[in-house]
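pinging the channel bc i need a second pair of eyes. not urgent but kinda urgent?? the chain im working w is below, pasted from the shared doc
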Amino acid sequence: MEKVKIILVEDNQQFRESIKELLIIKCCYEVIAEANNGEEFLSLGESLSPDIILMDLSMPNINGFEATKKYFWQFPKSKIIAVTGSIETTFLDKLIEVGFKGCVFKHNVFDEIQKAIETVLSDKMWFLNVHKLSFENK
């Protein structure tokens, strides 16, 4: 069985290294590329063919929303999961509109990332705790 191929887009190097270690050691996935921001991500080229892209939303130059929009123009069937430190749920509609298949909050990433990836790979969406937070905040 082939390993799941992941591109990791995150501007915080320490956080990116922690997620990468989790993905490789605990989840047995393959991180095929990393990028510090959306601009660097878009310059990676099309030959990588990732199964999943983990995309930070708040980054310098080109943020995660803009990078995802531009990427989807070329690769509309891509599976991109937002990884964000923001706990505001007001952006849920925007995530879905842009084309994200899921969202994981950074404070939950180590508990939820594997389940989120597996869910998105099975052609379902992962916005579980985003919905939960939106109901709790009302």
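so The chain has one domain: 5-136. and Confidence is low (pLDDT under 50) at residues 131-138. — does that match what u expected or am i reading it wrong
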